[in-house]
Specification:
alpha+beta
Length: about 250
């Protein structure tokens, strides 16, 4: 039988138990907190000097994909046809499904996936291995202008495979998505509770990816097992203010 530590016995708790207990909301502790709007972080990330800006085609959303069928058929697909390329139109639809802006409400840009407080702390990076019209390399997606920033040229399939505990699906997939968290973007409002919301946000985004991939006849597989700082290094982020939290591969199923 599984045993759980006394929530008041911090010294003997495991880190996961401490996190769960210390991020609980308590009505007695919320009354003395007010937001400092002057410290609100920028809702979008832009790199100062990317190698290039890559425009994306407008997403052509299929209207014949039945949501209930997609939910029923959705599976994690790990076996891809590595020789077949993906086109930028497919990539555009996948990115829009994950984090496309669908409306503006005051200062908030609402997206296809929900986010706590409409703060959207999750950033999307891609490793393009085999996308027609897009050179192999690491890119950052900017939803506010719907384009890509080219950050690094070259094939990072082996490095990402090693960083995901040897999961060779990265070497077969046409594209690998990497999600990071801009932590302060959520902590500004939710303090330590923000970490819970960040992980929930990432899950919403990943499910949208799964459904969009299924609708396009593609296969997707999420990756949670990864060496965080190895992936942080590949992306060029510090692992503290911004840190990798989740990944997923997409490719043509065999």
């Amino acid at each position: 039988m599984t045993s759980f530590s006394d929530p008041n016995d911090i010294e003997n708790q495991k880190i996961g138990e401490i996190f769960q207990q210390q991020t609980k909301y308590n009505p007695d502790k919320l009354t003395d907190y007010a937001l400092d709007w002057s410290r609100r972080p920028d809702p979008f990330k832009n790199h100062e000097s990317p190698l290039a800006y890559i425009s994306l085609p407008d997403p052509e959303i299929k209207t014949d994909a039945n949501l209930w069928r997609l939910l029923r058929q959705r599976r994690s697909i790990r076996d891809y046809n590595a020789e077949r390329g993906l086109d930028k139109g497919h990539l555009s639809i996948l990115l829009w499904a994950m984090q496309g802006i669908t409306a503006k409400y005051g200062e908030y840009h609402l997206r296809t996936a929900p986010s706590a407080g409409a703060l959207y702390p999750v950033e999307t990076y891609i490793f393009s291995r085999s996308i027609e019209g897009l050179e192999t390399g690491i890119y950052h997606f900017r939803p506010q202008v719907f384009d890509l920033e080219l950050l690094k040229r070259g094939d990072y399939a082996r490095e990402l495979t090693d960083a995901t505990l040897g999961q060779t699906i990265v070497m077969l997939a046409q594209v690998t998505f990497v999600w990071s968290a801009m932590v302060e973007r959520s902590k500004w409002k939710y303090r330590q509770r923000a970490y819970r919301y960040i992980y929930l946000d990432a899950g919403h985004i990943a499910q949208n990816l799964y459904l969009a991939a299924e609708g396009l006849g593609l296969g997707a597989c999420a990756i949670g097992a990864l060496f965080d700082d190895s992936v942080n290094t590949i992306l060029g982020i510090d692992g503290i203010k911004e840190t990798v939290i989740y990944m997923a591969t997409v490719g043509w199923p065999k």
